[in-house]
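Memo to structure team: turn this sequence into structure tokens by end of day. - J.P.
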Amino acid sequence: MAQAHTIATLGSHSALQILKGAKDEGFPTLLITLKNRLDFYLQFPFIDECLGIDDYAQFSSLETQLLQKNSILIPHGSFVAYLGMEGNKHLKVPYFGNKEVLDWEASRDLQLQWMQASSVNIPRIFIAGEPIDRPVIVKLFGAAGGEGYFVAHDQQEFDLKLTKFSGQKYIVQEYLVGVTMYPHFFYSPLTKSLELLSVDRRYETNADALGRISANIDPSFVVVGNIPLVIRESLLPEAFSMAKRIIAASQKLIDPQGLYGPFCLETIVTPDQKFHIMEISCRIVAGTNAFINGSPYSYLLYDQPMSTGRRIAREIKLAIKQNKLDLILN
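Reply from structure team:
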């Protein structure tokens, strides 16, 4: 009998949700983490094995061991941060998801091309040298969790604040006033089905405190938590339609596989009840951690708790049953 597949991931971001979901679906589980975090992760009974390393640069030394355990890696937001873009691309252990999408997620220029091809609403983008005549938000390429973002209200403020980021790549978007909403989807290449699993909002350091204090403070957009959200039902069809268009465009622009598995559309809903997509996160996002026991939307699809982490494991289980792992692993 063939050795059972082990679901493995890095100890960060959404690792607990991923491995709990894998164990609920009957898989052996394995975690790779820094040695100073081992005590924390060892308390969870659904993690069968923890491998401790001194530094994430040592990850490659574990690949032979992971291959011997017939492991499947589930990437999350810390993979590129800790292993690097090229490190992700050259992993030898089977990896859930399309690695070709990594370049499109990392490049704001490619994301803009993707969103434009999807015919979705996006904030106005200011090209280099174009005068800033309204509030804008400036985002550095590759900024982690909102770090390095800043708001400018006019050209003078923009020029002043930009001096801190000399030589770095950035994008300038119109600052839209509205409610941020982050719907979490899952697209299955096995069944060709799209599912809305949950929705959250992000809690961003002092940006979410400025309404409660009277001080002249520049907002920080570093994400420190996530808040569950239920969208007005009349807005759901458009949210679903946007996700379908994003998937369809990815299958033309990236490769026939395109984007699959979990992804998130980072949106703002303006007072006219229109969605505007700011970014596409092409993997499981930390906001799904608010729904480890499922959400109102996943409950409509599954009569049992279904987190995004568990949905990934169920897709892998279905692929094994259908002998189609090659469709979902890189």
